[in-house]
Structure formats: structure tokens, C-alpha cells
Specification:
The chain is 20% helix and 30% strand. The chain has 268 residues and is α+β, with helices and mostly antiparallel strands. It is built from five helices and twelve strands. A seven-stranded mixed β-sheet has the order 1-2-3-7-6-5-4, sandwiched between helices. Strands 11-10-9-8-12 form a five-stranded antiparallel β-sheet, with no helix packed on it.
Amino acid sequence: MKKTRVARYVTRAELKKYRTDSFCFAPTVCKRKTDSTNVRLKALAERGAEEGTLFLARTQTKGKGRMGRKFFSPKGNGLYFSLLLRPNLSAEEGGLITTAAAVAVCRALLRFGAENPQIKWVNDIFVNGKKVCGILTESHAEKGKIAYAVLGVGINLLSPKKGFDESIKNVAGAAFVTPVSPSAVLAAFLEEFSQLYSHLSTRPHYAEYLSRMLCVGEKVTMITADGELPVTVTGITQDFSLITRLKGGEERIFSQGEISLRPTTQKE
């Protein structure tokens, strides 16, 4: 029986096969290599590019993560793209984009058989205890409103043949063990995200985001600009801020920061 070949990269022609009533109908830029899809798309946004414009690359030399980190983007194993949005949101509501994208990624991965994707607050997707996706939203606000936002998504579809970079090999993983079509995964994400995006201000993804959250009820280390703090995660607010309980029982809410999954010695 002849083996069906799965395309390793997204092309405009390939993406057309999976177009639905979503952002798939917007202009698409495909590159073999770029420094950062977010950087390139922000430049297009400043020049007036229309909402829904996609910028994809087979590999990134300077892929961007949160808190100034680099996102490892090896050729042939991942899906790296940025999506231009011009939402009717206040600057304070920008987090709704990232959280909706997280839910949309989980839904898209599930369509192709990924095992129980989970969300590590606020922007990482985990499968089988390993990070398989990072999301970075960068926005430009004017007079308290978001003029545009660039949503960047990087998904490790398969593990690199040479393995992940030494600095991340203990935490990074892949969503799948057998090849899937990057174009099909991208189209699925765009379909799921566009449905949420059209009603974003009503937070249609809140319940699913909460149900997929890692660490609820668990002790973790919270990393903020002020340092590290052992806390127990108890949930999220309607604005997707993290609700935690300190050692003494006091509740504390974080709108910014990062959860570290390193074991904590906190005792209650």
C-alpha cells in the first residue's frame, strides 16, 4: 500500500485546500526563513496591512517568547506563524486574545489526535507534561484602545531529528508522534480562533480555558518582577488573572507573571 505523503510546510496553495469561513481568506505571506514572524508582521501592520493577514515561516532565527525569551523554531518540525488583528478592545483587554488563542490551539490539536492538551497560565500549551506550543501577543494601543495586535503562535508538531536544544530539552515536547499536515492544523486553528474572536468581549472561552488549566489546586512557584513566591493555584478571574492562595491562607490575584512548574517546598 502506497504511503500518503504529508507536506512538511505551509504554502498558500496547500492552505487553500483547508479554507473555511475564517481568517484563511486573508492575505498570507510564506517565507522559508525569517528572524521573527511577529517582528515582520508588526512592520506590515504599521504600513496598514489588513486584519487577518498571516505571516508564516518554515524556521525562525530569532523566534520570540514571553519575557524576552527565544522560541526554538527548527525547520521541518513546527508551525510558526503570526496573525494580524484589529480588535475592538481596550488595552486592558488584550489578554483575551492570548487566552482565546490558547483554547483554539487545544481544539485544533485535538482534531488531529493530540492527547489532552492543557494550558499553563497564561500562554503555553502542554501535552503529556511537555510544552508543545507558545503564544505571544504584542499589541499597539492608541488612546486606550488596541489599534492592532500581532498574535504569534509556535507549535512543535514533531520532535526534531537531532532533539530539542540543550537548554529546553527537559521541558519541550511535540504535539504528535506521526506527521500531520501543518496547513490542516493551521486551518483548524484559524477556524476555531475566528469563532471565539468574533465574540471575544463576552469571553466565550472562559470555561474551557479553566477546565484545561494545569496546576489548579497545586502548589507552584509564581515568578513576578518582584521575585518568586510559593502559592497554590485556585483558579482564574473573568479577566483571566490568576487566583492563588498564599501559605497563610491569604488570597492573591496576579494579572502578570509566570508559573514555574519546579517543585516547591511550600507546606500548609
